[in-house]
Amino acid sequence: MSGASFNRLSALSHTLQKQFTSKRVSVGVIGSGNWGTAIAKICGENAEAHPELFHPQVHMWMYEENVEHLGETRKLTEIFNSTHENIKYLKGVQCPSNVYANPDIRDVGARSDVLIWVLPHQFVVRVCDQLKGHLKKDAVAISCIKGVSVSADRVRLFSDIIQERTGMYCGVLSGANIASEVAKEKFCETTIGYDPDNSVNPLYTPNTIRSVFNRPYFRVQVVKDVPGVALGGALKNIVAVAAGIIDGLELGDNTKSAIMRIGLAEMQKFGAMFFDCDRLTMSEESCGIADLITTCLGGRNRKCAVAFVKTGKPMHVLENELLNGQKLQGAATAKEVHEFLEHQNKVDEFPLFKAVYNIVFKNLPPNKLLEAI
Ligand SMILES: NC(=O)C1=CN([C@@H]2O[C@H](COP(=O)(O)OP(=O)(O)OC[C@H]3O[C@@H](n4cnc5c(N)ncnc54)[C@H](O)[C@@H]3O)[C@@H](O)[C@H]2O)C=CC1
Ligand SMILES: O=C(CO)COP(=O)(O)O
Predict the structure, then answer these.
(1) In the chain, which residue ranges form alpha helices assigned H by DSSP?
(2) Which ligand places an atom closest to the C-alpha of 189?
(3) For residue 174, how far is its CA from the centre of ligand 2 (angstroms)?
(4) 344 appears as a binding residue in the annotation
(5) What phi-psi label fits residue 363: left (phi over 0), alpha (psi between -120 and 50 degrees) or beta?
(6) Cα of 145 from ligand 1 centre, angstroms
(7) d(CA 176, CA 289)
(8) What value, to the nearest 5°, has the Cα angle with vertex 124 and ends 59 and 95?
(9) HEC per residue, 70-137
(10) Terminal Cα distance for the chain, rounded
(11) Mean pLDDT by 10 residues, the chain (373 residues)
């Protein structure tokens, strides 16, 4: 078992419940895209189910935009707060009425004890800067962001960036969780990386954090290996692009399985080489192997990579054409990881990552993928 696993501990202890009676935890969500809205739905359901633990309302920061609705142009927040449906990013899913779409990011930050970050990784740094000075002193953060950030010669996890820029301790949630399926309450598992030894607030135990997210259809496992959880979610997006290339070339399931196996090995090698991750986190937990499988079968990165092979259009064009405002992470992550590996003089030790980068950004023909690995 990877790291220390907490989820087999019993549900919240009596003592903890008593602590919460005096102070109910306010949960806030930063982001309201496809996954952001699904996560807010889960948190809203738990706030309703555990009124002794949680503040009844969950504020979800919604990046304001105008959308066409029933023949009128209206603000997305107004539509969400009257219909409880995010008609742009999670159409057809009803959220509980205690989830409130708040366009004021600082207000969401200021009222939250547990602040969940679920936005495309491109926007994280700007959002951190907007929130600085507008957060509760003892708040903790959980990042559901899948990606890494590269600056100069460093590769960094978004949980570390959030922690450094805001001062909040930041754990990570990541798993085999295609948002549209989770939102329809189809059973899945997820992993939270949370290290209570490093959290500044002893009130927020692993069980507290688990109870924010755990639902009968969304089973949470908590481990201590925070970098392992974060890297699994980021790196599998590169492998999903490779899987989409294989599907675009119509090479079949055996070939795709080979890509997934090689991809998993590169993910584990990267984690061990640069972050001291536990290899087992990626091979045994939802955030590793299971997320890799689901994303290579049904994710957006795979879908756009299939179209990339079939149409020859660049990935950013396909992102705009196929995803209705949702964002791709795989191509950007392939580029960022490549830049980092170049700095480290290690590109050739990760042939699958290298091949994806060369195909997406350097015009290597997709049918050269297998030769390259
Ligand atoms: N969608 C999925 O199935 C899953 C996604 N994730 C991860 O969750 C994270 C968030 O993804 P999604 O919620 O799916 O987002 P998304 O792909 O639906 O992106 C759209 C979101 O970006 C926001 N946005 C657009 N321009 C912005 C700006 N300038 N500043 C701030 N926000 C802006 C939009 O308002 C919207 O909330 C990503 O790291 C993704 O990899 C993780 C698990 C599942
Ligand atoms: O991370 C995901 C599922 O766990 C979603 O992956 P995509 O961004 O490729 O859709």
Answers:
(1) 14-22, 34-49, 76-83, 105-111, 124-131, 158-166, 179-183, 206-213, 226-248, 253-275, 279-284, 291-298, 300-311, 315-322, 330-344, 351-361, 369-372
(2) 2
(3) 10
(4) no
(5) left
(6) 8
(7) 8
(8) 30
(9) CCEEEEHHHHHHHHCCCCCCCCCCCCCCCEEEECCHHHHHHHCCEEEECCCHHHHHHHHHHHCCCCCC
(10) 30
(11) 42 44 85 98 97 96 94 96 97 98 98 96 94 94 93 87 95 97 98 86 88 98 96 96 98 97 97 93 96 96 97 96 92 94 95 98 96 92
Cβ of 120 below 6 Å from ligand 1: yes
Place of tokens 């015009």: 363
Place of tokens 């679920």: 118
User: What Cα–Cα distance (Å) separates residue 92 from each residue in 85, 102, 322?
Assistant: 7, 20, 18
pTM metric for this prediction: 0.92
**Element containing residue 154 per DSSP (H, E):** strand 154-157
Q: Which atom of ligand 2 is nearest to the CA of 174?
A: 4
Q: Is the beta carbon of 295 within 6 A of some atom in ligand 2?
A: yes
36 is in an annotated binding site: yes
Residue ranges and CATH numbers for the domains of the chain are 14-224 (3.40.50.720), 232-372 (1.10.1040.10)
For residue 300, how far is its CA from the centre of ligand 2 (angstroms)? 6
* Contact between residue 372 and residue 358 where contact means Cβ atoms under 8 Å apart: yes
Q: Is 146 annotated as a binding residue?
A: yes
- Within 8 A by CB and 6+ apart from 231, the residues are 148, 157, 267, 270, 271, 275, 277, 282
- Residues forming a β-bridge with 191: 174, 221
Residue nearest to atom 21 of ligand 1 (CA): 33
DSSP secondary structure, 11-42, as one string: SS-HHHHHHHHHSPBPEEEE--SHHHHHHHHH
Provide the residue type at 158 as one letter. F
CA dist., res. 263 & res. 235, Å (int): 9
Exposure on the CB side of residue 345, measured as CA atoms within 13 A: 0
